[in-house]
From TrEMBL:
One record GO biological process: methylation
E.C. numbers: 2.1.1.222, 2.1.1.64
UniProt xrefs under PANTHER family: METHYLTRANSFERASE (PTHR43464), UBIQUINONE BIOSYNTHESIS O-METHYLTRANSFERASE, MITOCHONDRIAL (PTHR43464:SF19)
Pfam family, one: Methyltransf_25
Record protein name field: Class I SAM-dependent methyltransferase
Keyword ATP-binding tagged: no
Entry annotated with the keyword S-adenosyl-L-methionine: yes
CDD domains: AdoMet_MTases
Length: 226
């Protein structure tokens, strides 16, 4: 494993740079700008729902979708997981890779949008997506990509801020109809899947960082049976 940042696919020998990004350049720019605005955007601590849900799982291969500055990925790697972490923002990934080096853990970073990344299908024991800002498309590409990455016997854990999905569109440009929410993934499940958790619950929020004001989570945890 390597902490190099691979473009589009997890390629251990890839030199690094973030310029081989695959995905919509506008989405990349939007997130790069958001990260570049601040020295550190998120708390630097792992998400509470992830910590709670991973407690009973045996470490294996994990994909962290929309990994941001890498706190979850690093926490998982410290816990013995073989981590691939993916994000559209090169700014975030550079920070994440630096934090991983400082922590002395190996993570395979992928600079790509979820739906454009070349990922091994059905091969992750855990796919974790914590507050991912995945854009919705008519073919449900992001929802399907999340499910397709899970190995038989593995788990998809999708966590979002409760209440945002039912908000009205803001003047700021945020429209919940543009994004993928847990219910949309749940709607796609067939007999190959078992729902282990699908609920709203109080959030164990890491201290500090943007988004700390959100008090409740939507947690969808589903297991692929075959
Ligand atoms: C709200 S942040 C959450 C970051 C991190 N999971 C956390 O909990 O701190 C959403 C992240 O999703 C990333 N993102 C947005 N669209 C994406 C896409 N299509 N594929 C992968 N990552 C994406 C953004 O760059 C950002 O880092």
């Amino acid at each position: 494993m390597t902490d190099d940042i691979a473009a589009g696919s997890p390629a251990p020998d890839s030199p690094s740079p973030t310029d081989g990004y695959v995905g919509d350049p506008a989405v990349r720019s939007e997130w790069d700008n958001r990260y570049a605005d601040r020295h550190q955007l998120w708390s630097g601590r792992p998400n509470g729902a992830l910590v709670a849900e991973v407690a009973g799982l045996t470490p294996g291969r994990v994909l962290d979708v929309g990994c941001g500055e890498g706190a979850d990925a690093i926490w998982l790697a410290r816990g013995g997981w073989d981590v691939t972490a993916l994000d559209v923002s090169g700014v975030a990934l550079e920070r994440a890779a630096r934090h991983a080096r400082d922590a002395g853990v190996d993570v395979q970073w992928v600079h790509a949008a979820l739906t454009d990344a070349v990922l091994p299908s059905a091969s992750f024991d855990l796919v974790s997506a914590q507050y991912p800002a995945l854009l919705r498309t008519p073919d449900a590409a992001a929802e399907r990509a999340l499910l397709a990455a899970v190995a038989p016997g593995g788990v998809l854990l999708l966590v979002h801020h409760a209440g945002m999905d039912t908000q009205h569109a803001h003047e700021s440009g945020f429209d919940p109809a543009d994004y993928v929410w847990p219910s949309m993934v749940a709607d796609l499940l067939d007999d190959d899947w078992r729902v282990e958790t699908n609920e709203q619950r109080p959030r164990v929020a890491p201290e500090g960082g943007a988004g700390a004001h959100h008090t409740d989570d939507l947690v969808l945890r589903v297991r692929r049976l075959r």
